[in-house]
Amino acid sequence: MTDQPVPASELYTDEFAANPYPSFARLRADAPVCPVSSPRFDQYLITRYDDARAALVDPRLSKDLYGPEQYYLKIFGPNSEALNRNMLNADPPEHTRLRRMISQAFAPRRIEALRPRVAQIVDDLLDKIVPRGESDLMRDFAIPLPMIVISELLGIPPADHDRVLDWTQVIRTSGSSRRSPQEERAAVQEAQLRLHHYLAGLVAAKREQPADDIVSALIDACDQEGKLSEAELVTTTFLLLFAGHQTTADFLGNAVVALLTHPDQLDLLRDRPELLPSAVEELLRFDGPLPVASPRIATEDLEYQGRRIPAGSLVGVVINAANHDPGHFVDPDRLDLRRVRGPHLGFGYGVHYCLGVSLARMEARIGIGALLRRLPGLRLGVPVDELRRLPAASPFRGLLELPVTFTA
Protein backbone atom coordinates (compact mmCIF):
# COMPACT_ATOMS: atom_id res chain seq x y z
CA MET A 1 0.00 0.00 0.00
CA THR A 2 1.49 3.31 -1.04
CA ASP A 3 2.38 5.84 1.66
CA GLN A 4 2.82 8.69 -0.78
CA PRO A 5 -0.02 10.72 -2.28
CA VAL A 6 -1.03 9.62 -5.75
CA PRO A 7 -0.34 12.69 -7.91
CA ALA A 8 -2.97 14.29 -10.08
CA SER A 9 -0.90 13.46 -13.16
CA GLU A 10 -1.68 9.76 -12.65
CA LEU A 11 -5.43 10.11 -12.28
CA TYR A 12 -6.80 13.38 -13.61
CA THR A 13 -6.02 12.94 -17.29
CA ASP A 14 -8.02 12.77 -20.51
CA GLU A 15 -7.60 8.98 -20.46
CA PHE A 16 -8.97 8.87 -16.93
CA ALA A 17 -11.96 11.02 -17.93
CA ALA A 18 -12.73 8.63 -20.80
CA ASN A 19 -12.41 5.48 -18.67
CA PRO A 20 -11.50 5.74 -14.98
CA TYR A 21 -12.25 2.10 -14.21
CA PRO A 22 -8.75 0.63 -14.82
CA SER A 23 -7.35 3.23 -12.42
CA PHE A 24 -10.06 2.42 -9.88
CA ALA A 25 -9.20 -1.28 -10.18
CA ARG A 26 -5.51 -0.57 -9.45
CA LEU A 27 -6.44 1.51 -6.41
CA ARG A 28 -8.80 -1.17 -5.09
CA ALA A 29 -6.10 -3.82 -5.45
CA ASP A 30 -2.98 -1.93 -4.37
CA ALA A 31 -4.09 1.08 -2.32
CA PRO A 32 -7.77 0.76 -1.31
CA VAL A 33 -7.36 3.71 1.06
CA CYS A 34 -4.84 6.21 -0.20
CA PRO A 35 -4.03 9.93 -0.22
CA VAL A 36 -4.57 11.61 -3.56
CA SER A 37 -3.33 15.01 -4.60
CA SER A 38 -5.96 16.46 -6.93
CA PRO A 39 -6.15 19.73 -8.86
CA ARG A 40 -8.85 20.97 -6.47
CA PHE A 41 -7.83 19.64 -3.04
CA ASP A 42 -6.03 16.71 -1.40
CA GLN A 43 -8.04 13.88 0.06
CA TYR A 44 -8.02 10.20 0.98
CA LEU A 45 -9.89 7.96 -1.45
CA ILE A 46 -11.76 4.85 -0.30
CA THR A 47 -12.39 2.45 -3.17
CA ARG A 48 -13.55 -0.98 -1.93
CA TYR A 49 -17.26 -1.67 -1.56
CA ASP A 50 -17.35 -2.73 2.10
CA ASP A 51 -15.14 0.16 3.18
CA ALA A 52 -17.16 2.62 1.08
CA ARG A 53 -20.46 1.49 2.56
CA ALA A 54 -19.02 1.69 6.08
CA ALA A 55 -17.57 5.17 5.44
CA LEU A 56 -20.89 6.51 4.15
CA VAL A 57 -22.44 5.89 7.60
CA ASP A 58 -19.36 6.52 9.77
CA PRO A 59 -20.28 9.31 12.25
CA ARG A 60 -16.58 10.19 12.52
CA LEU A 61 -16.71 11.38 8.91
CA SER A 62 -18.50 14.71 9.01
CA LYS A 63 -20.32 16.36 6.09
CA ASP A 64 -20.22 19.81 7.75
CA LEU A 65 -17.88 21.85 5.56
CA TYR A 66 -18.74 25.16 7.24
CA GLY A 67 -17.09 24.68 10.63
CA PRO A 68 -14.08 26.62 11.93
CA GLU A 69 -11.74 25.09 9.35
CA GLN A 70 -13.94 26.40 6.52
CA TYR A 71 -13.23 23.48 4.18
CA TYR A 72 -15.84 24.82 1.80
CA LEU A 73 -13.43 27.52 0.68
CA LYS A 74 -10.98 25.07 -0.88
CA ILE A 75 -13.75 22.87 -2.29
CA PHE A 76 -16.41 25.27 -3.55
CA GLY A 77 -14.83 28.72 -3.48
CA PRO A 78 -15.66 32.00 -1.72
CA ASN A 79 -19.24 32.37 -2.99
CA SER A 80 -20.38 28.92 -1.99
CA GLU A 81 -21.87 29.60 1.43
CA ALA A 82 -24.81 31.46 -0.10
CA LEU A 83 -25.73 28.39 -2.19
CA ASN A 84 -24.14 25.27 -0.70
CA ARG A 85 -24.80 25.58 3.03
CA ASN A 86 -27.61 23.05 2.92
CA MET A 87 -28.46 19.55 4.12
CA LEU A 88 -25.95 17.91 1.75
CA ASN A 89 -23.16 19.58 3.72
CA ALA A 90 -24.60 19.11 7.20
CA ASP A 91 -24.63 16.47 9.93
CA PRO A 92 -27.44 15.38 12.23
CA PRO A 93 -29.30 16.98 13.90
CA GLU A 94 -29.12 19.85 11.37
CA HIS A 95 -29.30 17.41 8.46
CA THR A 96 -32.21 15.58 10.06
CA ARG A 97 -34.17 18.81 10.51
CA LEU A 98 -33.61 19.98 6.95
CA ARG A 99 -34.23 16.61 5.32
CA ARG A 100 -37.48 16.08 7.21
CA MET A 101 -38.78 19.37 5.85
CA ILE A 102 -37.86 18.57 2.27
CA SER A 103 -38.75 14.88 2.18
CA GLN A 104 -42.48 15.66 2.25
CA ALA A 105 -42.15 17.21 -1.21
CA PHE A 106 -40.68 13.97 -2.57
CA ALA A 107 -43.18 11.57 -1.08
CA PRO A 108 -43.71 8.58 -3.44
CA ARG A 109 -47.38 9.43 -4.00
CA ARG A 110 -46.52 12.98 -5.12
CA ILE A 111 -43.76 11.74 -7.42
CA GLU A 112 -45.98 9.08 -8.97
CA ALA A 113 -48.56 11.75 -9.78
CA LEU A 114 -45.91 13.38 -11.98
CA ARG A 115 -45.63 10.39 -14.31
CA PRO A 116 -47.99 11.72 -17.05
CA ARG A 117 -46.25 15.11 -17.05
CA VAL A 118 -42.78 13.53 -17.27
CA ALA A 119 -43.96 11.38 -20.19
CA GLN A 120 -45.36 14.47 -21.92
CA ILE A 121 -42.06 16.37 -21.51
CA VAL A 122 -40.17 13.39 -22.93
CA ASP A 123 -42.47 13.20 -25.94
CA ASP A 124 -42.33 16.96 -26.52
CA LEU A 125 -38.52 16.85 -26.59
CA LEU A 126 -38.46 13.85 -28.90
CA ASP A 127 -41.02 15.40 -31.25
CA LYS A 128 -38.39 18.05 -32.04
CA ILE A 129 -35.61 15.48 -32.44
CA VAL A 130 -37.25 12.69 -34.44
CA PRO A 131 -37.59 14.47 -37.83
CA ARG A 132 -33.92 15.41 -37.95
CA GLY A 133 -32.25 12.00 -37.98
CA GLU A 134 -29.45 13.32 -35.76
CA SER A 135 -29.09 15.07 -32.44
CA ASP A 136 -26.81 16.12 -29.64
CA LEU A 137 -28.73 14.16 -27.02
CA MET A 138 -27.15 16.02 -24.11
CA ARG A 139 -28.30 19.41 -25.44
CA ASP A 140 -31.63 18.26 -26.87
CA PHE A 141 -32.77 15.66 -24.35
CA ALA A 142 -30.66 14.56 -21.37
CA ILE A 143 -30.13 18.04 -19.91
CA PRO A 144 -33.52 19.70 -20.62
CA LEU A 145 -35.65 16.74 -19.44
CA PRO A 146 -34.70 16.80 -15.74
CA MET A 147 -34.23 20.56 -15.81
CA ILE A 148 -37.82 21.15 -16.96
CA VAL A 149 -39.16 18.63 -14.43
CA ILE A 150 -37.37 20.08 -11.40
CA SER A 151 -38.03 23.68 -12.50
CA GLU A 152 -41.76 22.99 -12.68
CA LEU A 153 -41.65 21.27 -9.29
CA LEU A 154 -39.92 24.26 -7.74
CA GLY A 155 -42.23 26.76 -9.44
CA ILE A 156 -39.67 28.44 -11.70
CA PRO A 157 -41.63 30.17 -14.50
CA PRO A 158 -41.10 28.66 -17.98
CA ALA A 159 -39.81 32.01 -19.28
CA ASP A 160 -36.89 31.71 -16.85
CA HIS A 161 -35.91 28.09 -17.59
CA ASP A 162 -33.28 28.91 -20.21
CA ARG A 163 -31.34 31.45 -18.21
CA VAL A 164 -31.40 29.33 -15.06
CA LEU A 165 -30.15 26.42 -17.14
CA ASP A 166 -27.37 28.60 -18.57
CA TRP A 167 -26.12 29.49 -15.08
CA THR A 168 -26.18 25.90 -13.88
CA GLN A 169 -24.31 24.76 -17.00
CA VAL A 170 -21.52 27.27 -16.35
CA ILE A 171 -21.08 25.64 -12.93
CA ARG A 172 -21.46 22.08 -14.27
CA THR A 173 -18.92 22.46 -17.09
CA SER A 174 -16.31 24.35 -15.10
CA GLY A 175 -12.84 23.48 -16.37
CA SER A 176 -13.97 22.34 -19.81
CA SER A 177 -13.58 25.61 -21.71
CA ARG A 178 -10.48 27.17 -23.23
CA ARG A 179 -10.57 30.04 -20.76
CA SER A 180 -7.71 30.57 -18.34
CA PRO A 181 -8.19 29.26 -14.77
CA GLN A 182 -8.71 32.83 -13.59
CA GLU A 183 -11.35 33.48 -16.23
CA GLU A 184 -13.01 30.16 -15.42
CA ARG A 185 -13.22 30.96 -11.72
CA ALA A 186 -14.62 34.39 -12.49
CA ALA A 187 -17.30 32.90 -14.78
CA VAL A 188 -18.34 30.35 -12.14
CA GLN A 189 -18.48 32.97 -9.40
CA GLU A 190 -20.58 35.23 -11.64
CA ALA A 191 -22.99 32.35 -12.38
CA GLN A 192 -23.22 31.56 -8.65
CA LEU A 193 -24.00 35.17 -7.80
CA ARG A 194 -26.64 35.47 -10.52
CA LEU A 195 -28.24 32.18 -9.50
CA HIS A 196 -28.30 33.21 -5.83
CA HIS A 197 -29.87 36.55 -6.70
CA TYR A 198 -32.47 34.84 -8.88
CA LEU A 199 -33.39 32.20 -6.28
CA ALA A 200 -33.65 34.81 -3.53
CA GLY A 201 -36.03 36.71 -5.79
CA LEU A 202 -38.00 33.52 -6.50
CA VAL A 203 -38.43 32.89 -2.77
CA ALA A 204 -39.60 36.49 -2.28
CA ALA A 205 -42.06 36.20 -5.18
CA LYS A 206 -43.50 32.93 -3.85
CA ARG A 207 -43.92 34.49 -0.43
CA GLU A 208 -46.05 37.23 -2.00
CA GLN A 209 -47.92 34.91 -4.38
CA PRO A 210 -47.71 31.25 -3.33
CA ALA A 211 -48.61 28.44 -5.70
CA ASP A 212 -48.74 24.64 -5.74
CA ASP A 213 -44.98 24.10 -5.84
CA ILE A 214 -42.13 23.04 -3.56
CA VAL A 215 -40.76 26.52 -2.88
CA SER A 216 -44.18 27.73 -1.74
CA ALA A 217 -44.55 24.66 0.47
CA LEU A 218 -41.15 25.27 2.07
CA ILE A 219 -42.01 28.93 2.69
CA ASP A 220 -45.30 27.90 4.30
CA ALA A 221 -43.54 25.42 6.55
CA CYS A 222 -40.99 28.07 7.46
CA ASP A 223 -43.62 30.68 8.29
CA GLN A 224 -45.88 28.28 10.16
CA GLU A 225 -43.26 26.39 12.13
CA GLY A 226 -40.13 28.52 11.89
CA LYS A 227 -38.05 25.54 10.82
CA LEU A 228 -36.17 27.14 7.94
CA SER A 229 -34.35 30.46 7.93
CA GLU A 230 -34.53 32.74 4.91
CA ALA A 231 -30.99 31.79 3.90
CA GLU A 232 -31.88 28.09 4.24
CA LEU A 233 -34.85 28.57 1.93
CA VAL A 234 -32.50 29.84 -0.79
CA THR A 235 -29.76 27.23 -0.29
CA THR A 236 -32.32 24.42 -0.15
CA THR A 237 -33.89 25.63 -3.38
CA PHE A 238 -30.45 25.63 -5.00
CA LEU A 239 -29.73 22.10 -3.78
CA LEU A 240 -33.03 20.81 -5.15
CA LEU A 241 -32.51 22.61 -8.46
CA PHE A 242 -28.95 21.42 -9.01
CA ALA A 243 -29.25 17.91 -7.58
CA GLY A 244 -32.62 17.54 -9.26
CA HIS A 245 -31.23 17.77 -12.78
CA GLN A 246 -27.42 17.49 -12.81
CA THR A 247 -26.93 13.84 -11.93
CA THR A 248 -29.99 12.67 -13.88
CA ALA A 249 -28.79 14.47 -17.00
CA ASP A 250 -25.31 12.97 -16.73
CA PHE A 251 -26.75 9.54 -15.99
CA LEU A 252 -28.95 9.62 -19.09
CA GLY A 253 -25.95 10.47 -21.27
CA ASN A 254 -23.77 7.77 -19.68
CA ALA A 255 -26.56 5.22 -20.01
CA VAL A 256 -27.05 5.88 -23.73
CA VAL A 257 -23.31 5.50 -24.37
CA ALA A 258 -23.21 2.27 -22.36
CA LEU A 259 -26.09 0.81 -24.38
CA LEU A 260 -24.74 1.93 -27.75
CA THR A 261 -21.35 0.41 -26.99
CA HIS A 262 -22.94 -2.87 -25.84
CA PRO A 263 -25.25 -3.70 -28.76
CA ASP A 264 -26.25 -7.07 -27.31
CA GLN A 265 -27.65 -5.32 -24.24
CA LEU A 266 -29.28 -2.63 -26.39
CA ASP A 267 -31.04 -5.31 -28.44
CA LEU A 268 -32.06 -7.12 -25.26
CA LEU A 269 -33.69 -4.00 -23.86
CA ARG A 270 -35.46 -3.23 -27.13
CA ASP A 271 -36.84 -6.78 -27.18
CA ARG A 272 -37.69 -6.86 -23.50
CA PRO A 273 -38.73 -3.38 -22.31
CA GLU A 274 -40.01 -4.93 -19.08
CA LEU A 275 -36.33 -5.07 -18.07
CA LEU A 276 -36.18 -1.25 -17.85
CA PRO A 277 -36.34 -1.04 -14.03
CA SER A 278 -33.46 -3.46 -13.54
CA ALA A 279 -31.63 -1.98 -16.55
CA VAL A 280 -31.63 1.49 -14.94
CA GLU A 281 -30.08 0.06 -11.77
CA GLU A 282 -27.42 -1.82 -13.73
CA LEU A 283 -26.60 1.19 -15.90
CA LEU A 284 -26.23 3.32 -12.76
CA ARG A 285 -23.93 0.74 -11.19
CA PHE A 286 -21.95 0.38 -14.42
CA ASP A 287 -21.20 4.08 -15.03
CA GLY A 288 -22.76 6.40 -12.49
CA PRO A 289 -22.78 10.21 -12.76
CA LEU A 290 -21.28 10.87 -9.32
CA PRO A 291 -17.99 8.95 -9.18
CA VAL A 292 -16.99 10.23 -5.74
CA ALA A 293 -19.43 11.08 -2.96
CA SER A 294 -19.33 14.67 -1.77
CA PRO A 295 -16.40 15.21 0.62
CA ARG A 296 -16.34 14.18 4.24
CA ILE A 297 -14.02 15.37 7.01
CA ALA A 298 -12.35 13.05 9.52
CA THR A 299 -13.22 14.45 12.95
CA GLU A 300 -10.67 12.15 14.61
CA ASP A 301 -7.89 9.80 13.57
CA LEU A 302 -9.43 6.88 11.64
CA GLU A 303 -8.21 3.58 10.27
CA TYR A 304 -9.52 1.78 7.19
CA GLN A 305 -7.71 -1.22 5.69
CA GLY A 306 -4.83 -0.58 8.10
CA ARG A 307 -4.37 2.92 6.73
CA ARG A 308 -4.42 5.80 9.20
CA ILE A 309 -6.48 8.79 8.11
CA PRO A 310 -5.47 11.75 10.28
CA ALA A 311 -8.08 13.97 11.89
CA GLY A 312 -8.92 16.95 9.69
CA SER A 313 -8.35 15.04 6.44
CA LEU A 314 -10.83 15.23 3.59
CA VAL A 315 -12.15 11.82 2.56
CA GLY A 316 -13.73 10.84 -0.75
CA VAL A 317 -15.80 7.66 -1.02
CA VAL A 318 -15.35 6.47 -4.61
CA ILE A 319 -18.80 5.18 -5.44
CA ASN A 320 -17.96 4.12 -9.00
CA ALA A 321 -14.93 2.13 -7.79
CA ALA A 322 -17.01 0.43 -5.10
CA ASN A 323 -19.68 -0.43 -7.68
CA HIS A 324 -17.04 -2.30 -9.70
CA ASP A 325 -15.59 -4.23 -6.75
CA PRO A 326 -15.22 -7.91 -7.77
CA GLY A 327 -15.48 -8.82 -4.11
CA HIS A 328 -19.11 -7.73 -4.22
CA PHE A 329 -20.25 -8.00 -7.86
CA VAL A 330 -19.66 -10.93 -10.19
CA ASP A 331 -17.79 -9.86 -13.33
CA PRO A 332 -18.35 -6.19 -12.41
CA ASP A 333 -16.89 -4.68 -15.58
CA ARG A 334 -19.53 -6.43 -17.70
CA LEU A 335 -22.79 -4.63 -18.45
CA ASP A 336 -25.55 -7.15 -17.72
CA LEU A 337 -29.09 -5.79 -17.77
CA ARG A 338 -30.34 -9.11 -16.39
CA ARG A 339 -28.01 -8.92 -13.41
CA VAL A 340 -29.78 -9.82 -10.21
CA ARG A 341 -30.31 -6.45 -8.59
CA GLY A 342 -27.71 -5.87 -5.91
CA PRO A 343 -27.24 -3.08 -3.39
CA HIS A 344 -25.14 -0.72 -5.50
CA LEU A 345 -24.13 2.62 -4.04
CA GLY A 346 -25.19 4.77 -6.97
CA PHE A 347 -27.79 6.58 -4.86
CA GLY A 348 -25.54 6.71 -1.81
CA TYR A 349 -26.19 5.02 1.52
CA GLY A 350 -27.21 6.00 5.02
CA VAL A 351 -28.75 9.30 6.09
CA HIS A 352 -27.52 11.05 2.92
CA TYR A 353 -29.20 8.50 0.62
CA CYS A 354 -30.54 10.35 -2.44
CA LEU A 355 -33.78 12.11 -1.53
CA GLY A 356 -34.94 12.27 -5.15
CA VAL A 357 -34.40 8.60 -5.94
CA SER A 358 -38.02 7.96 -6.97
CA LEU A 359 -38.04 10.94 -9.35
CA ALA A 360 -34.65 10.03 -10.83
CA ARG A 361 -35.73 6.46 -11.48
CA MET A 362 -38.98 7.61 -13.09
CA GLU A 363 -37.24 10.07 -15.41
CA ALA A 364 -34.62 7.48 -16.38
CA ARG A 365 -37.12 4.70 -17.09
CA ILE A 366 -39.48 6.89 -19.09
CA GLY A 367 -36.67 8.70 -20.90
CA ILE A 368 -34.61 5.65 -21.90
CA GLY A 369 -37.70 3.67 -22.86
CA ALA A 370 -38.90 6.47 -25.14
CA LEU A 371 -35.47 6.90 -26.75
CA LEU A 372 -35.36 3.24 -27.71
CA ARG A 373 -38.94 3.27 -29.04
CA ARG A 374 -38.79 6.47 -31.03
CA LEU A 375 -35.21 6.56 -32.35
CA PRO A 376 -34.76 3.36 -34.41
CA GLY A 377 -31.24 2.60 -35.54
CA LEU A 378 -29.83 4.80 -32.79
CA ARG A 379 -26.03 4.94 -32.91
CA LEU A 380 -23.18 7.21 -31.91
CA GLY A 381 -22.41 10.02 -34.33
CA VAL A 382 -18.67 9.86 -33.55
CA PRO A 383 -16.33 7.11 -32.33
CA VAL A 384 -16.70 6.60 -28.59
CA ASP A 385 -13.14 7.78 -27.93
CA GLU A 386 -13.97 11.13 -29.56
CA LEU A 387 -16.84 11.96 -27.22
CA ARG A 388 -16.25 15.22 -25.36
CA ARG A 389 -16.54 14.71 -21.61
CA LEU A 390 -16.49 16.76 -18.47
CA PRO A 391 -12.91 17.20 -17.25
CA ALA A 392 -11.45 14.41 -15.13
CA ALA A 393 -11.24 16.70 -12.09
CA SER A 394 -14.97 17.45 -12.23
CA PRO A 395 -17.03 16.03 -9.35
CA PHE A 396 -19.41 14.69 -12.01
CA ARG A 397 -18.96 12.03 -14.67
CA GLY A 398 -20.78 13.11 -17.78
CA LEU A 399 -20.63 14.30 -21.35
CA LEU A 400 -20.39 17.75 -22.84
CA GLU A 401 -21.98 16.49 -26.04
CA LEU A 402 -23.59 13.25 -27.20
CA PRO A 403 -23.90 13.27 -31.01
CA VAL A 404 -26.10 10.46 -32.34
CA THR A 405 -27.77 9.49 -35.57
CA PHE A 406 -30.89 7.41 -36.14
CA THR A 407 -33.53 6.63 -38.73
CA ALA A 408 -35.79 9.64 -39.09
From TrEMBL:
One of its GO terms (biological process) is antibiotic biosynthetic process. One of its GO terms (molecular function) is oxidoreductase activity, acting on paired donors, with incorporation or reduction of molecular oxygen. Pathway: Antibiotic biosynthesis; mycinamicin biosynthesis. Transmembrane segments: none annotated. The keyword Calcium does not apply. It holds the Pfam family p450. Keywords: Antibiotic biosynthesis, Heme, Iron, Metal-binding, Monooxygenase, NADP, Oxidoreductase. It comes from the Bacteria. Belongs to the cytochrome P450 family. This is Cytochrome P450. It comes from Micromonospora mirobrigensis. The lineage of its organism: Bacteria, Bacillati, Actinomycetota, Actinomycetes, Micromonosporales.
